[in-house]
Amino acid sequence: MAQQYGIVISQGRVADRTDGALRGAHAAGTSLGEYLGRTPVVVGAPSPSVVDDWSEALPAARETLEALRSALRDVLDAGDTPLLVTNTCAASLGTLPTVAKRHPEAVVLWIDAHGDFNTPETTESGYLGGMVLAAACGLWESGHGSGLNPEQVIVVGGRDIDPAEAELLSRAGAHVLAPAESTPERVAELVAGREVWIHVDWDVLEPGYIPAAYRVEGGLRPHQISDIFAALRDQVRGVELAEFEYGDTDVPANVSVELILETFQALLR
């Protein structure tokens, strides 16, 4: 029986420092809904980007994060597989604690150029999106819950990780795979047949495919993400797609949306 995806689109600002990711989430989520024949649930309303500290961005995002958590629970209660199309990785502050509760044995694949494992004590940028995974693992209190076991976290394609953040990841027991190590075979070996929750920040890709706010050289290619998806499709219990920067002049938006659709198709049985 084919998976039935319940689509949630995040449209409320969650620490956005650029304006393009909200537009990107709407464009990609709408197209995915049309492709799958499902009407997405839209959470929040756009507001202008601000370069603010996590201590300001976190309370400002409370309403959106609570609404995302509620929407995710609704999808799970309906027996569907969640497909969340979000603006920033920080939106996962509202989802990962629910994932930890509903699927406690699931491995979280954090497919991202960054570890997002900083805390208020280690962050150099003050960016909330760089702290989300650490919060979900209980290293600091976000006010939105935790419960995620860091030993069940695999950072795939990680290559721009702060030294203090790398130490926290190592100490917590999370796995970090550099791009060269991020093969379907290695990922499947670490997953070891368990359920999987997939999070993708499109900056994991080599720049030039799907625009993201942060460009980090030496990334994966889209087909490599598709191959990982295909290797795990029967184990996937939810998907988050984040940080598509709509409007980047180097890549036409419609091309990026089509590439997101093509990559996602590898999850379909």
Automatic annotation (TrEMBL):
PROSITE patterns under this entry?
ARGINASE_2
GO cellular component terms given for this protein: cytoplasm
Keyword check for Glycoprotein, yes or no: no
Looking up Pfam families in the UniProt record yields: Arginase (PF00491)
Q: What GO molecular-function term can you cite, just one?
A: manganese ion binding
Superkingdom of the organism of origin: Bacteria
Similarity field: Belongs to the arginase family.
Q: What is this protein called?
A: Arginase
